[in-house]
Design brief:
- The chain has 344 residues and is α/β, with parallel strands linked by helices.
- Helix content is 47%, strand content 11%.
- It has one domain: TIM Barrel (Alpha-Beta Barrel).
- It is built from 16 helices and 9 strands.
- The protein has a 7-stranded parallel sheet with strand order 1-4-5-6-7-8-9, with helices on both faces. A two-stranded antiparallel sheet has the order 2-3.
- A hairpin with a 3-residue loop joins strand 2 (90-92) and strand 3 (96-98).
- Helix 7 (121-134) runs parallel beside helix 10 and helix 10 (174-198) packs parallel to helix 12.
- The structure holds coproporphyrinogen III.
């Protein structure tokens, strides 16, 4: 793997000196760009786009070309792992993912398997094509969902406000939950290693539903599996852990062998820094709704975020994915403000 010309993201993740903070946006590939919607409209839908490497690479490159971000993130979805384990999903227009079959019993578990990493060859191929298109300009980020967040979808069968069916399993059948979490973890480790072999420069693990658990439950059902993933990857590339809403877990996450901790917008940067300590980088955390404000307000709030996090060990981002109806112009103001900011 060669080092990109712009390696700010990798240096910031490793705690090396940077001239300025790198910036990218969670969910930057797709959603907000008319150029993405045009590619998507030319295909049968979201899944065909994910599974067609040339087109997935094309929409991965769009935000680098159009928005000027300091990293690309491969266009895919966290739900490719459940699918590779034998639980296929549908992406229902305007409603989100739906799993016709779910995992709720021993018999359901017997019907799925640890994913063969080869069944996700289309992702590695998209990574290789993207790297050619990037031509060493910026790093490429690979990703996976955290085992707990994937369990939520596999048990619940789709999105939910409470994921109470998934949480019922944790309470009534912890044995089943741990078995499923272990299978997801093994599947994800092989998948992430294959992404590294294909050339990604950094990995992010999305624990999007971390915040629905209590500190104790999170410690039992998520942290041990994140730890296994970090240990198995063994610093081949820097790893970012993003546990949305799990403010109680910052010190636990920082104790894992990862490089960066993602921060959502409900957390004050100085408090997170105190809990995480000086040896991990932080990433975040502008409220995605700020991108609905005036250009002046976006620039001001971005600058105050940059001041609060400080120059070192910091990657500028939103506190969660960019909302689909955000104007690309607002995103450009955010990106440019980070790129031109000078610390006193
Ligand atoms: O960051 C990027 O731009 C790379 C691509 C990416 C997608 N999904 C593409 C996508 C990434 C990193 C994801 C991760 C993902 N997927 C997460 C974790 C991050 C988070 O937001 O918490 C989750 C929970 C999912 C599951 C998922 N995929 C849901 C709930 C939905 C429907 C709602 C939504 O966000 O749009 C998706 C669909 C999806 N994944 C879209 C995109 C661009 C929209 C599909 C479309 O084009 O219509």
């Amino acid at each position: 793997m060669s080092t990109p010309q712009n390696d700010l993201l990798l240096r910031a993740a490793k705690g090396l000196p940077v001239e300025r903070s790198p910036v990218w946006l969670m969910r930057q590939a797709g959603r907000i760009l008319p150029e993405y919607r045009a590619v998507r409209a030319s295909l049968s839908g979201f899944k065909e786009l994910v599974e067609t490497p040339e087109r997935a690479a094309e929409v991965t490159l769009q935000p680098v070309d159009i928005l000027g971000v300091d990293a690309a993130i491969i266009f895919s979805d966290i739900l490719v792992i459940p699918e590779a384990m034998g639980l296929s999903y549908e992406m229902v227009e305007k409603r989100g993912p739906h799993f016709p079959q779910t995992i709720r019993s021993e018999a359901d578990l017997k019907g799925i398997r640890i994913a063969e990493p080869e069944s996700l060859n289309y992702v590695y191929e998209a990574i290789r094509i993207t790297l050619k298109g990037l031509d060493g300009r910026v790093p490429l980020i690979g990703f996976a969902g955290a085992p707990f967040t994937l369990l939520c979808y596999m048990v619940e069968g789709g999105g939910s406000k409470t994921f109470s069916t998934a949480r019922k399993m944790l309470m009534q059948r912890p044995d089943l939950a741990h078995h499923l979490l272990e299978m997801i973890t093994q599947s994800s480790i092989a998948y992430l290693k294959a992404q590294v072999d294909a050339g990604v420069h950094l990995l992010q693990i999305f624990d999007s539903w971390a915040g629905i658990l209590s500190p104790d439950t999170y410690r039992k059902f998520s942290i041990p599996y994140l730890e296994k993933i970090c240990r198995a990857l063994d610093s081949t590339v820097p790893i970012t852990l993003f546990a949305k809403g799990a403010h109680f877990s910052y010190s636990d996450l920082a104790a894992l062998p990862c490089h960066t901790i993602g921060v959502d917008w409900n957390s004050p940067p100085d408090e997170v820094r105190q809990r995480v300590g000086p040896d991990r980088s932080l990433q975040g955390n502008l409220d995605p709704a700020v991108l609905y404000a005036s250009g002046k307000e976006i620039a001001e709030q971005t600058r105050s975020m940059l001041r609060a996090f400080g120059k070192n060990r910091y990657i500028a981002n939103l506190g969660h994915g960019v909302y689909p109806d955000t104007s690309p112009e607002a995103v450009k103001i955010f990106v440019e403000t980070v790129k031109t900011f000078q610390h006193d």
